[in-house]
Amino acid sequence: MFGKKSEALAVESVSQFVDDKKNASAEARRCTIVAKSSVFKGDIDVEGDIQIWGKVIGNIRVKEGAIRIMHAGRVEGELSAPEIIIDGDVEGTCCAATLDILEHGELRGISRCSSMSIKRGGLFFGQSEQVENKTASERVVPIKDTNNDKSKDKATVKTSA
What we know:
By secondary structure, this protein is α/β, with parallel strands linked by helices. The protein has one helix at residues 2-28; strands at residues 31-34, 39-41, 44-46, 49-52, 55-57, 60-62, 66-69, 74-80, 83-86, 89-101, 106-118, 123-130, 138-144, 153-160.
C-alpha cells in the first residue's frame, strides 16, 4: 500500500525532470535550415545555428552560434558569426572568430577571422585579414612627467594587452 504511492511520486518527479531537460536542450540546439532545393534572397539574422543546404543570396548574421555551409550549399554575400564552417561554396566576406574550410569547401572573397583552418581539398581564393580576439582589451598607460610633477599625466599611449 505505501510502496505504490511512493513509486507513483518517484515516477512523476522523474518524468517532470525529463520533460524539463528536453525543453532546455531543444532551446539550446535551436537551428535554422535552408533546404537543399530552396533559394533564399535577402538578409538573414538568427540567434542560433544555421545550416545552408540550398542557395542564399544575401547577408547572414548569427549572434550566438555557427553558420554551416553544407556540401550542397552556396552563399553569395557577407557572413558574420562566432564560428563559420564551409563545406560548400561561398562568395563574399566571412567575419568570424573561427573559420573552417572543409574538404569540399570553397571561399572566394575576404576572410576576417582570428583563427582559420583549411582542410586538404578545401579552397580559398582572396584576401585574409587577421582580426585580434575581442577578449584582448586595450590598455591605457599614463606617461608621467619626470622633470616637474611626477603625479601629473602628460599623455596616454594605447597598447594591446
